[in-house]
C-alpha cells in the first residue's frame, strides 16, 4: 500500500499557522486523554488504600476505560455523524475533565469506576475522530507531519504525563493528581474552542457503514488484522517488562530509568515514522513488524544485563512509537472516502488488543513463565508480515 494523494479542501484552504495551532490543540487533548487513561497505573496502591479496595480491584480503573473505549469508538462516531467535529471533540475532552474532577472528590470506589467509564467514552470517541482530523486542518503536504504531532501526544503522555501525575500523587495525594489532570482537560477544552475552526461533518455515518467498510475494503481488513496482531503481541509482552527485569536482577531504580528510555525512544519513533509514511508506508509497517519481534527475542536472550536491556528497550520503543501514526495512516489511505468509519474500527481494535494482550500475557506468565510472553508476543507481531504481504496496494 502506498500513500493515496487526495484533495483535502478544508485543510488546503486554511492558513498553515492557524491550522498548526488547531493541531496543537488536538495534540494537547490527546495528551490529556492518554495521561488520564494511564494515570491509575502509578496510583493503584494509594487509591485502593484510601477507598478500601484491593490493588487487583483498583486495577479496574485501567481495564474499564480500555474496554469501554473499544465499544464506544464506533458508537460515538455514528451518534455524532452530523455534528461539527470541533464540537464533538470539545464535548468529549470536557467530559474527561469533569470525570477526573469527580474522581478527585469521590467518596467511594463506585463513583471512581463510573468516572473511569466516562473517560473510556471520551478516549474511544476522541481518538476515532482526532486520528484523521489533520486532513481537515492543515494543507495536504503537512498532513503526515501533523498526524505525527497529534499522535506524539500519546507517547508524550507515557513519558511525561503519567510520571508527573504519579509524582504529584506521591507528593500531595492521589486526589490532587486526578484534579490536576481534570483541570488539564478543561484547559484542552478552552484551547479547542479558541484555536480550532469549525470542522463540519462531511458525511453522515450509520452502523451499516461499519461492517460495509470492513467487508468491502481489503486494505482496511489488512490494517485491522495487522493492528490486532502487533498491538496484542506488544502488550502481551510489554505489560510484564517490569517483572521480567526484576526476575533478571535489575533494581527498581534502574527499571524506572529503562522505562523512561523506552518512552523517549517512542517519541522519536513516532516522528521518524511521520516522516516516512508519506512515501514509504508499506515499508514502515514491515519495519515495525520486524523491529518489535526482534527486540522481544533479543530481550529474552540478553535481558539479564541492565545495559543490554536498556539498548533493547530503546529499539523496542522506536518500533512501538512508530505504530500509532503508521497504522492510522494505513487505515486512512485504505478508506479515503470513509475515514471516520474506518478509524472507529481501528480504534476499537487497538483498545481490544490492549485488553486481550494484557489478559493473555497474564495467563502465560502464570501458566508457563514470565519470559514466555516475549516469545509469544514476537510470534504474533511476526504474523503481521504475512498479512502485509497479502495486502492490496493502493493506486496513487
Automatic annotation (TrEMBL):
The chain crosses the membrane at residues 20-39, 59-80, 87-111, 117-135, 147-168, 174-197, 218-241, 253-278, 285-302, 308-332, 344-365, 371-391. It is a multi-pass membrane protein. Pfam families: MFS_1 (PF07690). Residues 22-395 form the Major facilitator superfamily (MFS) profile domain. Gene3D superfamilies: MFS general substrate transporter like domains. Keywords: Cell membrane, Membrane, Transmembrane, Transmembrane helix. InterPro entries: MFS, MFS_dom, MFS_Efflux_Transporters, MFS_trans_sf. It is found in: Cell membrane. PANTHER family: CHLORAMPHENICOL EFFLUX PUMP RV0191, PURINE EFFLUX PUMP PBUE. This is MFS transporter. It comes from Nonomuraea antimicrobica.
Amino acid at each position: 500500500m502506498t500513500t493515496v494523494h487526495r484533495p483535502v479542501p478544508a485543510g488546503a484552504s486554511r492558513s498553515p499557522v492557524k491550522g498548526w495551532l488547531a493541531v496543537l490543540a488536538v495534540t494537547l487533548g490527546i495528551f490529556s486523554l492518554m495521561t488520564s487513561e494511564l494515570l491509575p497505573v502509578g496510583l493503584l496502591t494509594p487509591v485502593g488504600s484510601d477507598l478500601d479496595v484491593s490493588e487487583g480491584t483498583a486495577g479496574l480503573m485501567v481495564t474499564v476505560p480500555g474496554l469501554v473505549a473499544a465499544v464506544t469508538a464506533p458508537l460515538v462516531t455514528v451518534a455524532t455523524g452530523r455534528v461539527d467535529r470541533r464540537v464533538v471533540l470539545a464535548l468529549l475532552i470536557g467530559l474527561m475533565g469533569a470525570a477526573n474532577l469527580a474522581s478527585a472528590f469521590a467518596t467511594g470506589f463506585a463513583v471512581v469506576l463510573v468516572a473511569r467509564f466516562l473517560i473510556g467514552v471520551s478516549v474511544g470517541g476522541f481518538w476515532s475522530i482526532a486520528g484523521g482530523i489533520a486532513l481537515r486542518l492543515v494543507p495536504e503536504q503537512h498532513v503526515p507531519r501533523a498526524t505525527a504531532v497529534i499522535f506524539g501526544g500519546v507517547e508524550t503522555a507515557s513519558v511525561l504525563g503519567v510520571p508527573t501525575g504519579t509524582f504529584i500523587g506521591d507528593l500531595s495525594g492521589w486526589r490532587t493528581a486526578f484534579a490536576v489532570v481534570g483541570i488539564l482537560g478543561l484547559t484542552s477544552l478552552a484551547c479547542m474552542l479558541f484555536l480550532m475552526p469549525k470542522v463540519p461533518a462531511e458525511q453522515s455515518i450509520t452502523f451499516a457503514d461499519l461492517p460495509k467498510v470492513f467487508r468491502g475494503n481489503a486494505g482496511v481488513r489488512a490494517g485491522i488484522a495487522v493492528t490486532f496482531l502487533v498491538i496484542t503481541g506488544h502488550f502481551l509482552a510489554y505489560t510484564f517488562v517490569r517483572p521480567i527485569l526484576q526476575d533478571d536482577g535489575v533494581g527498581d531504580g534502574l527499571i524506572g530509568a529503562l522505562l523512561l528510555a523506552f518512552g523517549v525512544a517512542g517519541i522519536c519513533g513516532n516522528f521518524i515514522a511521520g516522516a516516512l509514511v508519506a512515501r514509504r508506508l508499506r515499508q514502515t509497517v514491515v519495519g515495525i513488524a520486524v523491529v518489535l519481534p526482534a527486540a522481544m527475542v533479543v530481550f529474552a536472550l540478553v535481558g539479564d544485563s541492565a545495559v543490554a536491556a536498556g539498548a533493547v528497550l530503546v529499539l523496542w520503543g522506536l518500533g512501538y512509537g512508530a505504530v500509532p501514526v503508521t497504522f492510522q495512516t494505513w487505515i486512512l489511505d485504505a478508506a479515503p472516502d470513509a475515514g471516520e468509519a474506518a478509524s472507529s474500527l481501528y480504534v476499537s481494535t487497538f483498545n481490544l488488543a490492549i485488553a486481550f494482550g494484557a489478559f493473555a500475557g497474564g495467563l502465560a506468565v502464570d501458566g508457563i513463565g514470565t519470559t514466555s510472553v516475549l516469545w509469544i508476543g514476537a510470534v504474533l507481531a511476526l504474523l503481521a508480515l504475512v498479512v502485509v504481504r497479502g495486502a492490496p496496494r493502493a493506486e496513487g
